[in-house]
Design brief:
0% strand, 2 domains
């Protein structure tokens, strides 16, 4: 277990370094660059732009800027926003609870429904429920998240007026009930797609376990079908789902970005797009590194849990 942990930590550090390199140079080499927001100011001269670049250290070679930025990052200084001068890490932490609320709620809901649908589809392979679940999964995976979000707003918020069209809470309210009411539509959109992914994987894993010899032996011993299913089939079929949970983090973050934009949810995804629009590169880089860190931690935790549950991986 210790060897696995050391190996994964080393790989994670290398990946973080690569992400920081690619992200930093891609942003700074993009058209306009970090000074694009200042160049749009009326009456801004080239001399004034050069003076601002010198004050911000943007007139130095990119490799020097990267080394300086990385050094500050390693010391816990993530930089300051170009827009309001606030510390980048403080801005990210302020938006993190909204994203976690959206992601955790949709993930738990989609896992519970997806695992149930996958097991039921595998047990009833070729029957009506399996066909309906397969068709629904294909439809869910084919629909873009932003389109489904707009349809949900049109149907449930504008036409039926059952739920709010956006935001995290009503101004002047902010109670738990009010936040939960605003949470319904974005969670519905994210869960609809994620259930399809979880159910397909769970169905495949269950079918693979059902055909194993030890399952046939358990049935031959006269064990009750329900006990065979719950204790032997489901227990072993859930092992690949642990790895899938770690792999799903990038998908969840991407889906949350779209959902937060469509529903004006004040999370990290919305902050990322707003920062890109304002060319607020310190915040964009901070979000990029923070998201990469979350993804790598999720994968590391999934690997460790898989190794703890399955002794074969520890060999």
């Amino acid at each position: 277990m210790l060897n696995i942990l050391i190996q994964r930590l080393w790989q994670s550090l290398v990946l973080l370094l690569l992400v920081s390199l690619i992200g930093f140079f891609a942003l700074n080499l993009a058209p306009g660059g970090p000074l694009s927001q200042f160049s749009l100011t009326p009456g801004m001269s080239q001399q004034a732009l050069d003076r601002i670049a010198g004050q911000m250290g943007l007139n130095r070679p990119l490799p020097v800027q990267y080394v300086d930025w990385l050094g500050h990052l390693l010391r816990g200084d993530w930089g300051r926003s170009y827009r309001d001068g606030q510390p980048v890490l403080s801005i990210i932490i302020a938006h993190l609870p909204a994203t976690l609320l959206l992601m955790v709620t949709s993930t738990l809901l989609s896992m519970a429904i997806g695992v149930w649908v996958g097991i039921r589809s595998a047990v009833r392979r070729g029957q009506l429920f399996d066909h309906i679940a397969t068709i629904a999964s294909m439809i869910a995976l084919s629909i873009p998240t932003f389109w489904f979000g707009l349809v949900a707003i049109y149907c449930f918020a504008l036409k039926l007026q059952w739920f709010p069209a956006g935001n995290m809470y009503t101004v002047g309210d902010g109670s738990i009930k009010d936040v939960a009411w605003h949470l319904v539509l974005p969670v519905l959109v994210l869960t609809f797609v994620d259930v399809a992914i979880w159910s397909r994987y769970m169905r495949s894993a269950t079918l693979e376990v059902i055909n194993q010899d030890f399952i046939k032996t358990a049935r031959a011993k006269g064990l009750a079908p329900r006990r065979v299913l719950l204790k032997h089939v489901v227990g072993n079929a859930l092992l690949p789902m642990i790895t899938l949970a770690g792999m799903q983090l990038p998908t969840l973050l991407g889906g949350a970005l779209v959902a937060e934009t469509v529903f004006t949810w004040p999370g990290m995804g919305r902050l990322f797009l707003d920062s890109l629009g304002y060319s607020d590169y310190p915040v964009v880089m901070g979000l990029l590194m923070f998201s990469a860190l979350l993804v790598l931690l999720g994968n590391l935790l999934a690997d460790l849990l898989t190794a703890a549950v399955d002794p074969r991986i520890r060999r």
